[in-house]
Amino acid sequence: MIDPHDAQAVQAWRKLERARLLAARTALAADYRAAQTRAIAAELDRRVASRTGTIVSVYWPIRGEPDLRPWMHAACERGLRIALPVAVALRQPLQFREWRPGAPMARGLWNIPHPADGPEVVPDVLLAPVVGFDAANYRLGYGGGFFDRTLAKLGGAPFVLGVGYPEAAIPTVHPQPHDIAMHAIVTGK
Questions:
Q1: What is the pLDDT of residues 141-167, one digit of tens each?
Q2: If you write DSSP's letter for every residue of the chain in order, what string do you get?
Q3: Does residue 40 contact residue 186 with C-beta atoms inside 8 Å?
Q4: Could you say which of 37, 65, 72, 100 has the lowest number of CB atoms within 10 Å?
Q5: Is residue 165 within 8 Å of residue 25, measured between CB atoms?
Q6: Do residues 141 and 132 touch, judged by C-beta distance below 8 A?
């Protein structure tokens, strides 16, 4: 047990929990991850309105995250606009650029692909990958604070869905004052 008001203890606990959850996620069988991702995509189809022009920020999958690239293609065909986050600098909010199939891509921080050019857009719906999550919809991410800074900057404007596997559920992430809860978490269950 840790004191949730002791920021240093929470930070140390999160680092250990993040490592444990990432190891567990990468150990999941590829066919299981694929089946869970199909279930997540079906749930996104139910939750994300298919109004033409709606901008949905997805993410480029890394480290065993659900791979929503096929969903991105299908969503574009239905008239949704897809954006990808662009990390421009450490300790700064993310920017978003529109993505389309075949768009020229560049590699940003941590070598993560993003649209090479285009104007910044503001998403209506933001999908945030989770390393862990709790029943209050708080997300444990990679620890850089990008999504919390971004959500604070956007002021609650987008509808935010955490995305991850059911195994990422933990009793609490020990939310801190800067943490922002997701509206909901979408898993394969």
A1: 998 888 888 888 888 679 999 999 999
A2: ---TT-HHHHHHHHHHHHHHHHHHHHHS-HHHHHHHHHHHHHHHHHHS---TT-EEE-----TT----HHHHHHHHHTT-EEEEEE--STTS--EEEEE-TT--EEE-GGG-EEESS--B---SEEEEE-SEE-TT--EE-SSS-HHHHHHHHHTT-SEEEEE--GGGB-S-----TT----SEEE---
A3: yes
A4: 100
A5: yes
A6: no
Amino acid identity of residue 36, one-letter, is Q
Q: Which domains are delineated in the chain?
A: 7-186 (3.40.50.10420)
The whole-model pTM stands at 0.92
